[in-house]
């Protein structure tokens, strides 16, 4: 799954690969190493976004060489998938998009339900696939991922259902998200895994211990979400930044004092490092850090407006040296004395 930096536009059928973007291979397909994450354009946990802006963001990603678009039914309760489908129709090219969507989170609550919860019952997965195809206005999903492990359903059973989807020609490759090594090993005994999607950024490195090495050893591509740590590494947040009601960051312990101040202090020092050593911004440094970690194939980049993708051009085409990697580690260790992971995102058990 080596990556390459394309030196020129290289046409393959009706798909063009942009100058400067880096690409890698997933299950025989060339995909951009920066992928568009569409949680934000769902419009329910990251503030409002208009349909016009959301569609323009998807098209803007493709125009910048990003062909991997990662979405899920839970994002806006179907809205993000619908936006991606409309963007494909507006652009007039299904081939320009590598669609990665997910299944296995249930938000359709009935009395007694615990809120959003993992749900990988076979009937639920079969229903979700058909609904995703309808919303995306396509008959084929390039990469279908289980969003969270459902501990009430055997992993082998879940893998078997996804194998059915591949055999039916509705799915090209299958992946998982938020699975641990034991769960991936069990899944892979039934159905080959193409990808794993965990949270990963220079503040949240839990996968370094086991998950990332296992994926490297077994040829499983890693797509990282929260690559910019819910915008903490974007460089624009301040101690007095206010988040609207319903914004997921209001529940994130990283955004609560005193931790919030620690993370912001680290960002300020990382800004200085990026500027002095590379002439880059902190967002470019943070995304490059993810891409340069051994075993990482794709870093997902969330955006609600096309201009929020402009910085992607400054992420590709260069690498962090060992001294910079060590300095980043030192800054984080010195500033963040009370670190916390992304565990708050874990859904309830059905």
How many domains in all?
1
What would the CATH topology be? Answer: TIM Barrel
Quickly count the helices: 9
Oligomeric state, counting identical vs distinct chains: single chain
Strand order of the largest sheet: 6-7-8-11-12-13-14-15
Indicate the overall shape: globular
What's the CATH class label?
Answer: Alpha Beta
Portion in helices: 25-40%
SSE series: EEEEEEHEHEEEHEHEHEHEHHEHE
Largest sheet features? 8 strands, parallel, barrel
Give the full name of the CATH homologous superfamily.
NADP-dependent oxidoreductase domain
What integer is the average pLDDT?
92
Provide tags for this entry.
350 residues; alpha/beta; TIM Barrel; 8-stranded parallel β-barrel; 3-stranded antiparallel beta sheet; 9 helices; 16 strands; 32% helix; globular
Description:
By secondary structure, the protein is an alpha/beta fold. The protein has one domain (4-238, 286-319): NADP-dependent oxidoreductase domain (TIM Barrel). It is 32% helix and 18% strand. The protein has helices at residues 51-63, 79-91, 122-136, 155-167, 181-188, 211-217, 259-278, 282-291, 322-335; strands at 4-5, 10-12, 15-17, 22-26, 29-32, 34-37, 68-70, 98-103, 105-106, 117-118, 141-146, 171-177, 195-197, 221-224, 296-302, 348-349. The strands form four sheets. An eight-stranded parallel beta barrel has the order 6-7-8-11-12-13-14-15, surrounded by four helices. A three-stranded antiparallel beta sheet has the order 1-4-5, with no helix packed on it.
């Amino acid at each position: 799954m080596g990556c390459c930096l394309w030196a020129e536009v290289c046409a393959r059928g009706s798909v063009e690969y942009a100058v400067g973007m880096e690409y890698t291979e997933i299950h025989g397909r060339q995909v951009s190493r920066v992928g568009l994450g569409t949680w934000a354009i769902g419009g329910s946990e990251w503030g409002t976004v208009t349909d016009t802006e959301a569609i323009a963001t998807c098209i803007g990603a493709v125009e910048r060489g990003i062909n991997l678009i990662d979405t899920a039914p839970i994002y806006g309760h179907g809205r993000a998938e619908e936006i991606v489908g409309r963007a494909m129709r507006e652009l007039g090219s299904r081939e320009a998009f590598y669609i990665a969507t997910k299944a296995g989170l249930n938000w359709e609550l009935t009395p007694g339900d615990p809120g959003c919860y993992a749900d990988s019952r076979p009937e639920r997965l079969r229903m979700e696939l058909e609904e995703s195809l309808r919303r995306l206005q396509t008959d084929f999903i390039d990469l279908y991922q289980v969003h969270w492990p459902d501990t009430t359903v055997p992993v082998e059973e879940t893998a078997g259902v996804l194998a059915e989807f591949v055999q039916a020609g509705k799915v090209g490759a299958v992946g998982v998200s938020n699975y641990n090594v034991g769960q991936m090993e069990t899944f892979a005994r039934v159905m080959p895994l193409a990808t794993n999607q965990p949270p990963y950024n220079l503040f949240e490195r839990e996968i370094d211990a086991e998950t990332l090495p296992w994926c490297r050893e077994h040829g499983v591509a890693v797509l990282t979400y929260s690559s910019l740590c819910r915008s903490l590494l974007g460089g624009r947040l301040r101690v007095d930044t206010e988040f609207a009601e319903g914004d997921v960051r209001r529940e994130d312990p990283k955004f609560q004092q005193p931790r919030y101040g620690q993370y912001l202090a680290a960002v300020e020092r990382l800004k200085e490092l990026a500027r002095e050593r590379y002439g880059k911004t902190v967002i470019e440094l943070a995304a490059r850090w993810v891409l340069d970690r051994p075993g990482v194939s794709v870093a997902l980049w969330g955006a609600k407006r096309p201009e929020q993708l402009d910085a992607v051009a400054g992420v590709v085409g260069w690498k962090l040296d060992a001294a910079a990697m060590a300095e980043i580690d030192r800054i984080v260790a010195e500033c963040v004395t009370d670190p916390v992971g992304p565990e708050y995102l874990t859904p309830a058990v059905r």
